[in-house]
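As agreed, record passed on underneath.
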Amino acid sequence: MNSTKKLRLAASSYLNTAPLIWSFKYGARKDDVELSEALPSACAALLARHEVDFALVPAIEYQRIEDAELMPGVCVGSRQKVRSVVLVSRLNNLKKVRTVALDDSSRTSAALVRIIFKEFLQFEPEWITRSPDLKQMLRDSDAALIIGDPAMTFARDGLRVWDLAALWHDFTGLGFIFAMWMGKTANSGATTIDFLQAAKEGLTTRNEIIDHYEQRLGLSRSELEAYLTENITFFLDDDLRKGLELYYELAYKHELIPGLKPLNL
């Protein structure tokens, strides 16, 4: 690839994205791209403004960004319990919740928690968007949505924690996709990036990833290993595709997206 025309990528630096971006940061593809790290919501904005060519974007944004195109095969998903996307409350029952603070770095999960309340619990609390400061969020609201690494490291004493992927699975029997690589349709013919092979390379370096995040997050190696191998799945399959299709249908039903585009996978 011509080094003067490197493709521009954006992704978050959460543990759940590490295997997908490791090749671009430290591996075989590190000289082929310019990688910017940003919160998930900011990655969506960068792609929408054409400031990057491809981004690891909250799944909901496929339905919101004009001309967004999904890159096949790879995702940040969970089959049943994700651990890093949670709703937290001092109350012991979701039906008692009247106000929810939403993490402003989230897009997909913010829509998911709305769907869970409106579609499955059959009521809608008041929504407030806040920066991900759990103590402040719970000072102002009955419950708080926290995503990414912060969702795995806060003290749980006196709190009830609901895993959103587990709630989704309880209600639907399906897995859930939180994020996918996306580009714009105009770029689709230009990509020479094999995101699937990059993910496979990343997973072969799992021990290096764990070395990096063990100190950063203060979690044990066994917790990090279980998270990357049991909680998160990085490869799209029929169960996850069905879960994504249902999620989009419900997001459209509850007016969280402007239209309903078919999956281009």
Remarks:
- The chain has ten helices and twelve strands.
